[in-house]
Specification:
- The protein is α+β, with helices and mostly antiparallel strands.
- 45% of the residues lie in helices and 29% in strands.
- The protein contains 4 helices and 4 strands, in the order αβαββαβα.
- A 4-stranded antiparallel sheet has the order 2-3-1-4.
- The relative contact order is 0.21.
- InterPro entries: Ion_tolerance_CutA, N-reg_PII-like_a/b, N-reg_PII/ATP_PRibTrfase_C.
- This is Protein CutA homolog.
Length: 142
Amino acid sequence: MLMNLNRNYVFTIYLTIIRPCLVASQANMSSGSIDADKYSVAYVTVPSTDVGKTIGHGLVKNKLAACVNIVPQVTSIYEWKGEINEDSEALLMIKTRTSMVDKLTEYVRSNHPYEVCEVISLPIKNGNPPYLKWIGDTVPEN
């Protein structure tokens, strides 16, 4: 009887303390350690996919972005010069290093047809570690 109690006690300790620690440890090892805010995704709207392709190719060629996805059609509703407008545009989703966002913005502003172009960026707080590492390997430090 005492042996069964000890076995149950050990099993309970394993389930409640040891196993959760092992699972957490394995999860940390498999996900790797990624610095929050080291990478960003920038969003840019463009009047057409052709303009988006031109800007996207330039960003990747100049090592300002690892990847540019083009969403071919979004509808934008906005106020401009006192009037409400509704336009079809394409959306660029650009993956880069946070340290390169200023240079990326300069490049877009110099190559974009709009008087005031949208370039906004958000830090990537979490993601697939090999993918984030690839961004870092592809886009050099500022």
